[in-house]
Records
---
Amino acid sequence: MAEEQVFSAVKDKGLVEKRRKQMIKGALNLFKEKGFHRTTTREIAKESGFSIGTLYEYIRTKEDVLFLVCDSIYDQVQVRLEKVINVHGSPLEKLVSVTEAYFRLMDEMQEEIVIMYQEVKSLKKDTKEYVLQKEREMVQMLEKVIVTCLPEESISSKDAMLMANNIFIQGQMWSFRRWMLQRQFTLEEYIERQTQFILRSLSIGAPKKGEK
């Protein structure tokens, strides 16, 4: 968990969570405007609503703040995907719903996704590995949905893993390539076309309404 990765002099878990939420929100605003490297810890403290001294009670370095930001972004994505996965419906409907929910979330979090991928290289090796592991876990969630919507043994584990990564990247591409894609497609068009590509590559068609 994030609290185990980042040192805090404060032992009140509720207060640590509250302050770090403020810190993440403030840091994101600054990273969007200035980027990680041009942002100072003093600016983060001010934007978060407390002093630089208070800031250092909850983190040790600016890289700790970046880690908390990346961890928060992945947590939001994971929670949203889990909610859709747990909704009742046929396996195929679930794949379509999860894909759509993921793409819409990538649209909502465009700035955050771009920041995370631009700056994750600045993390230390161990914290970077933690963040990358969270990404692997999300890809595995997509992989399980893919496998359950197909006849047993109709797709190899490697192909399922590759398709899950394709979906993962196609969602993020809406953020990374927005300067071009969003001139050509609405979000709805992008989701519809990408979903059809995904289903065709799996040799299945889009589910009809009410199909089980």
---
Amino acid sequence: MTATAVEVITQIAERTNAHDLEGLAALFHEDYQSEQPFHPARGFGGRAQMKANWGALLTGIPDMRAEISASVQDGDVVWSECHWWGTTEQGEPFDMRGITQFTVRDGLIVSGRLFVELVEQGGADINDAVEASSGHRPQLED
């Protein structure tokens, strides 16, 4: 029996948490296509590159964990809210969150669009961020 698309995506977190690189790679089609719309140069194709990427992450973040807090399926597309965290080999915190959109066919992930970012530690508040984007600071009405 083939797993549902949501079950396949749930296995990403399970196999990441088990640090099962072979099992993780087995979820992806050989010709998997990945894009990151916020970072177009990070797009790539192929399970081999996906496996190399995750191998580096699991090595460099030896206690890496993953959680999928919610998923919604529409046909063969699954949107999920994801969180990955851990501590790098250098002792630095790793914390990434975002939304993934994976297409699953015949039990394999064939494509992904990742809308993910490292969580900013500190940084600008909303007023500073709006001002940096628009050149105008928000003014609250009395």
---
Amino acid sequence: MTATGTIDVADVRARHRIEDVVAASGVELRPTGKSLLGCCPLHEDHTASLSVGGIPDRFHCFGCGASGDVIEYVARLRNLTFRDAVAYLENDHDLGMSSARRAPASPLPQPPTIDVVPERAWEINELAWQRWTRPVNHEFALSWLRNHRGLDVAPVEAALESHVVGHTGAEWATTTRHLSRAGVSDDELLALDLSQRTRRDTLIDTLRGRLVVPVRDSEGHLTGFIGRQTLETSRGPRYRNPTRTAVFDKSTMLFTLVSHPSPPAHAVVVEGPLDVLAVAAAGVSTSLPVVAVSTGGTSVSRDQARQVSALSSQRAYLALDGDAAGRDGATRWVDLLYRQLHHPIAVADLPAGRDPADWIAEHGPSALRSLLTQARHPAYELAQLAPRGPAAAPATAFTPHL
């Protein structure tokens, strides 16, 4: 503020780094190249569309198009005029920023370069999972699924004789401290994406306030976790996968609760981990021979398609979300699983805007059987693939029964 009592706008800009203000507003920022990326809080964003600092002191969202300096960011976030946004920053109102945070800060520390051998990585992940499935955490996860998604996975856990969900708790560094006391080094925590380093050179938990599901390889080794946001006030992405680690690679990851179904079951390909849980619960409830699988979205690699084909020789069902992304994802699955690997499949059509978990919660477990028995031949998807050239079709005739 100047001697006359007016606010010096240039001084406000200089004292409030855009990176600090965005982080203080609840956005989880991660370094990539010369900028930081995070999910934009100005619209419904699950793809980390917000770029911060790529152009010095500016932000830009590739999703909604918003861009500007630190004042414009606060004005848009809080629905303020330019003048009010300047005053808001001047007073540090509700930003949770101390004078220490306003001081010039060094760039975010880079991830460690140490190599963690797979056996050690599996061991550390198991320690984290044991923490997140303590009775208090586990019961909270079960309760949240029942109350917020209409999903009861207790029968699934009883059938598998193991926990399939846990919860991290909402504290900033509980898991980090627990694992450190268990002998896990800071570099190991960072390398496995279980912790993140702050600008103050302290470690905090990567997954906070999230329901977690374990991702295991075909041998049962725990390679990583998918976290689903449960805090109403959090501005982070709804789902969070690990970054690439010594034992986790999203391009090869396949989330399923059963790696070796016996007797052989029909694979049901869905998008999200809660869809996997919902299909598994419906299968247990109705005795349907199904095993749900997910790649954590609509993307699919040839390796992931091979894994699905290897699960069972039975017909696989595509049950992706009822939206444009789901339809595009189904086409990619048809190309890899049906057209290239010659695995028999059928496509289940969900209503617009619905996913399998929603559908089953609304209509009950029997809705899964109806959804799959009404699945169709992938003729539409094959038509989309026609320009790519002919491919031999599977020899088996299409019979969409279970």
---
Amino acid sequence: VAHGGAAMTTVAYCAISPGGRVHRDTIVLDRDRAKQLQRLTSAVHDAGALVCAQIGHAGLVANTLSNRTPSLAPTTRVS
């Protein structure tokens, strides 16, 4: 994307906690994961573009079965 001339790309969707993921494969953005993403961000920066992370919490659509974590709030899914 960066080599194609885009000024910025986004790493989406990054959860703030394991229970806040939409699915178990969603990135949980903690210090260790941020370090692992440095290779990606360095490559994007080297190509002259910027990169950002879309950070959020899935809330009531968090998949508790996939995440293997209990819901801490009302949810549309049966645990």
